[in-house]
């Protein structure tokens, strides 16, 4: 495990095994993708899948869909048994980043999503950039199969983003991106629903 230089930020390496990763990807790829012209976020170039709650980036609201699917159960139990969260997340967004796809700087909606945001990186590493006005950008490596934990300052005071670059550097380390699928786990704040 490596600890970032931002309060509340952690990257837990090898959170799942290679086998678990390939089983999960198989399951995900059997299911229907949205985005890229399809609801609930047709305007998005990335493809995505929504479980638990469906989130609209345009309307910034969420709709309940049902409990998280059983393919995610082992992750939910591990999150609790390894004391990463006290309550299992009730929402999971799967995002697919192909070459030249990234995510613009943003802070996850504070009124709708709880204080801890988790992101599991599958298939490819990437750099996540954290920025805050008046400070130098901080780059954090998200290795394949790692779990990013964003809490406290890293969740509330910074914007995070992923570039569209295929090749990036962290010091001397060269990071080459391929297709990346991430699973972002959150807890919905029920009062924030409309
Ligand atoms: O792909 C990731 O790891 C992060 C996704 C993200 O920041 C988001 O969906 O809000
Ligand atoms: Fe985010």
Automatic annotation (TrEMBL):
Pfam families in alphabetical order: 2OG-FeII_Oxy_2
Q: Which GO terms describe its biological process?
A: demethylation
A GO MF label: demethylase activity
Residue ranges of every copy of the Fe2OG dioxygenase domain listed in the record? 88-189
Q: Check the record and name the SUPFAM superfamilies matching this protein.
A: Clavaminate synthase-like
**What PROSITE patterns does UniProt report for this protein, alphabetically?**
FE2OG_OXY
Q: Which InterPro entries match?
A: AlkB-like (IPR027450), AlkB-like_sf (IPR037151), ALKBH4 (IPR032857), Oxoglu/Fe-dep_dioxygenase_dom (IPR005123)
**UniProt superkingdom:** Eukaryota
Protein's UniProt name: 10533_t:CDS:1
- What species is given as this protein's source? Paraglomus occultum
């Amino acid at each position: 495990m490596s600890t970032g230089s931002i309060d509340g930020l952690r990257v837990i390496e090898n959170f799942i095994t290679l086998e678990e990763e390939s089983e999960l990807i198989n399951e995900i790829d059997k299911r229907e993708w949205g985005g890229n012209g399809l609801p609930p976020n047709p305007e998005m170039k990335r493809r995505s899948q929504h479980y638990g709650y469906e989130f609209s980036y345009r309307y910034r609201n969420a709709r309940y869909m049902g409990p998280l699917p059983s393919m995610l159960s082992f992750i939910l139990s591990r999150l609790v048994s390894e004391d990463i969260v006290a309550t299992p997340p009730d929402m999971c967004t799967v995002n697919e980043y192909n070459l030249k796809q990234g995510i613009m700087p943003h802070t996850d909606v504070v009124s709708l999503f709880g204080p801890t945001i988790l992101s599991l990186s599958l298939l490819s590493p990437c750099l996540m950039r954290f920025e805050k006005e008046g400070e130098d950008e901080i780059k954090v490596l998200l290795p394949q199969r790692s779990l990013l934990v964003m809490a406290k300052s890293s969740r509330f005071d910074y914007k995070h983003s992923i570039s569209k670059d295929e090749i990036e550097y962290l010091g001397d380390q060269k990071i080459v991106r391929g297709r990346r699928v991430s699973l972002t786990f959150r807890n919905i704040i029920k009062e924030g629903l409309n």
